[in-house]
Design brief:
10 helices; globular; about 0% strand
Length: about 220
Amino acid sequence: MKLSKFLLTVCLASVLASFAALPAAMAQDLKQLQLTDQQVIAFITAQKDFQPLVGKLLEGGDKPNDALLGELETIAKKHGFASFAEFEDVGANITLVLDGLDRKSGQYTDPIDKMKAELADIEKDSTIPDEDKKLAIDDLKQEIAVAKPLEFKGNVEVVKTHQAALEKLMVDGSGDSAAGGTEEPGGAPAAPAPASPEAVPEAPAPDATAPAAPETK
């Protein structure tokens, strides 16, 4: 089994710094499937188990050893996936949706439409040197030619439901939640942990220099 670079840069969300557009060759080979809430939640919760293997994956390059592949399969099955390949497919489909989601408005734009808009902007931009512009235009046209539109439109709503938790993986980078509370797979923040007794400030000691209260008779 040959581990793709796609897996290292996309499917292990715990090491993502941001979601980039899928390269043309990867988008062409992408196996689109209809996502379920259960699959997305499993993908999110699996990150903590996959995260310790990131270093080994990077060291192994695109051909990890059998022992590492066995670990990947075991973790994937532990979280309800039929195989590590299914985990990879789910991650790829999640990324395909996230790439087209506007984080502020929540509106989805198909990556092909985004590339066409980018192409139009480049063609109109007179500040780009002619040689650079030609290369950029040629690259985009090739990507548009092989790219496939989102096949299962319902995936947008499924991913949007868990968008906060997925973006949490990007922000934290370790699979662990940032301080101040945790993010549940459904996107709702969990209550922060109560402060330990040591963290509660003690009442200030009486000021010895303050005048004593008058004695009552």
